[in-house]
From TrEMBL:
SMART domains noted in UniProt: AAA
GO cellular component annotations of the record: plasma membrane
PANTHER family recorded: AMINO ACID ABC TRANSPORTER ATP-BINDING PROTEIN, CONSERVED COMPONENT OF ABC TRANSPORTER FOR NATURAL AMINO ACIDS-RELATED
Any GO molecular function: L-isoleucine transmembrane transporter activity
SUPFAM superfamilies: P-loop containing nucleoside triphosphate hydrolases
Annotated transmembrane regions: none
InterPro entries, A to Z: AAA+_ATPase, ABC_AA/LPS_Transport, ABC_transporter-like_ATP-bd, BCA_ABC_TP_C, P-loop_NTPase
Domain ABC transporter: 3-250
A single GO BP: D-alanine transmembrane transport
Name of the protein: ABC transporter ATP-binding protein
Keyword terms, alphabetized: ATP-binding, Nucleotide-binding, Transport
One Pfam family named in its UniProt record: BCA_ABC_TP_C
Length: 259
């Protein structure tokens, strides 16, 4: 198992945002995490990537206990994420945003940078090449010199995927990659996620758009009020009475407005 989560919990004051969650993420697959607004999906991602420290439970990644590890360390371990509300550096170009993801894998140190040593120059060239490869991969290479903040939502989402990929993750956490995109764009993001999986990167996907989830997921985990209420294949989840009651309802693509 690539990622093993046991009894994970996060309290905000009196609220159990995530409670006693067990989760197994098999390597090379897409695990989708669904549930109504406020179910704890983003909080779960924040716990996995180290943005929040859990109040209980453990997170094991590739057999190593990473519980409570800070984001700059989880990313070195191989966990990258995109945010529900895209968080790019507004005053920086698209390429610089993706280069920021490369810092994690940089081999030269601060002194190399100050003295412009050959190692630093080599490192910089390699980083730039890798960042451009990722921009090409997500179909945003032509935007390299644009200011990230001036781009439409859909392009920003592509750039943040390139930024996450530039860190060379083994596990990629995508928080609502298709939110705020039209049907055509959603389908394109679905294809892109498939290509990411084909590269051998394991994906965890939080998404309200059920068409995308049902299409992509090998496994679906359903959260409600911070707790896991079901796990199964898309077919199993679609016919689970508990899930239908808590979340899916009649019109599956309308369930829960993306925040
Ligand atoms: N930093 C925080 N401080 C206090 N409460 C929080 C914090 N972050 C999240 N919560 C609360 O925890 C619960 C879970 O929130 P979370 O954002 O994880 O839900 P979600 O499943 O991602 O919802 P959505 O589908 O709307 O994105 C909610 O009740 C939310 O208000
Ligand atoms: Mg969320």
């Amino acid at each position: 198992m690539l990622l093993e989560v046991r009894g994970l919990g996060k309290k905000f004051g009196g609220l159990d945002a995530v409670k006693g969650v067990d989760l197994d993420v098999p390597e090379g697959q897409v695990t989708a995490i669904i549930g109504p607004n406020g179910a704890g999906k983003s909080t779960l991602f924040n716990l996995l990537a180290g943005f929040y420290r859990p109040t209980s439970g453990t997170v094991t990644f590739e057999g190593k206990d990473i519980t409570g590890m800070k984001p700059h360390r989880t990313v070195r371990e191989g966990i990258a994420r995109t945010f529900q509300t895209t968080k790019l550096f507004d005053d920086a170009t698209v390429l610089d945003n993706v280069l920021a993801g490369r810092v994690v894998r940089s081999k030269s140190n601060a002194l190399d940078a100050v003295f412009h040593t050959p190692r630093h120059r080599r490192d910089e060239r390699a980083s730039k090449a890798r960042a451009m490869e990722e921009l090409e991969f997500v179909g945003a290479a032509h935007l390299r010199d644009r200011l990230a903040s001036k781009l439409p939502q859909e392009a920003q989402k592509r750039v943040s995927m390139a930024q996450a990929l530039a860190t060379e993750p083994r596990l990629l956490l995508l928080d609502e990659p298709a939110a705020g995109t039209n049907d055509e764009e959603t389908e394109a993001f679905g294809l892109l996620i498939r290509q990411i999986v084909a590269r051998g990167i394991t994906v965890c996907l939080v998404e309200h758009k059920m068409s995308m989830v049902m299409n992509l997921a090998d496994q679906i985990v359903v959260l409600d009020h911070g707790q896991r209420i079901a796990t199964g294949t898309p077919a199993q989840i679609k016919s689970d009475p508990l899930v239908i009651e808590a979340y899916l309802g009649a019109n599956t693509d309308q369930a829960g407005a993306p925040a």
